[in-house]
Amino acid sequence: MRAIFIILTIFGLSKSFAQADSVLLKREQQLSLYLNDLRAAEKDADKSLKNKIFKDYLYETIQLDNAFNYPFASLKSVGTIKSEDNLIRMFNWNVEQDDKSQKYYCYILRVDTKAKNEIKISELVDNSFALAPRPTEILEGKNWYGALYYKIIPIAKGNKQMYTLLGYDANTVSSNIKLIDVLSFTGNTPKLGSPIFKVGKETFNRMFYEHSEKAYMSLKFEAEYNRIIFDHLSPETPSMEGFYCYYVPDFSYDAFKFVKDKWVLQPDVVGINKRTDEKIIVHVQNPKTGKVEEVEYKGKWINPSDPNAVAGGNTHTASLPEDEENVKSTDSTTKTNSNSGTTIKDKKVKKRDSLYSSYIYSDVKKKRKKRN
Description:
The chain contains four helices and 17 strands. With 372 residues, it is α+β, with helices and mostly antiparallel strands. It has three domains: 1-78, no CATH class; 106-270 and 316-372, no CATH class; 272-314, no CATH class. Helix 1 (2-40) packs antiparallel against helix 2 (44-62).
């Protein structure tokens, strides 16, 4: 009898979930139509109207049972990312304006583990027109700078659960921004920013990296190494220092590693490819037959930062053209400055660190486009 009861209970739950998904499927189809209308709109007034229709219907939809786990796969131009602990989900999108500026929108769904896993919904409201170009303070959700998030990283600061966010902002027609921020909650109020980004002796609430619109900046989380690794940016020429629309990756990498409740900057890190199988399959042309054949090689993945690696575990040092000129003009046998005891390499690192601080944290006043 007990077995029959369990089977009936499972059947009832399965039927309930199936019905919930059926409702969500119909609403997803309608949302997709509304989203297509929004993307087809040509004028700001029409975009605003179509976006309100989509936004209101989405809010009604995400309140339904099982909406937290439903994929919403057809909403191609809306981010629907989840945190790795499955406690946070974001619905995040942008609307481009006639002047090419952006307005951003975001709903956050949070599983409240203290309230029987109830789903709490909050909204981030883009208020960028009233904020500094790169706000440094801790902000509430109703006073958001606007961005598109693509990664949510759970972290713990003491006993408080927080989430590191990796995001993107199509800043102006000439520059884009990659950013790192922190999401936390006071009750059901979302807050952005926390003093956990340590750069040298300074601490910051969030990080902004502005670069040329023509360039691509990589910013990603590597769980295997517990770090956020990203392209280091430099001006195309020294005369462009401070003009961030001319900043591009310089083929070196920096990273933030999570150490003792803080993201600590590690400049000039080694970018490491993911591990591969020891058997490597390649396709080569047979010189005798002219046919392309599959050939198997025995290989082994080597960590270049491993001190026992074949290459000797050499550490990576970024080098710019002007650095090479400095080296050429210095006696190769001279390793130390006789006055200060500072090595040539130390001088170059200090010079680059100064540049690094200036382009990230300099409070350059420039008119920022209105963001949504």
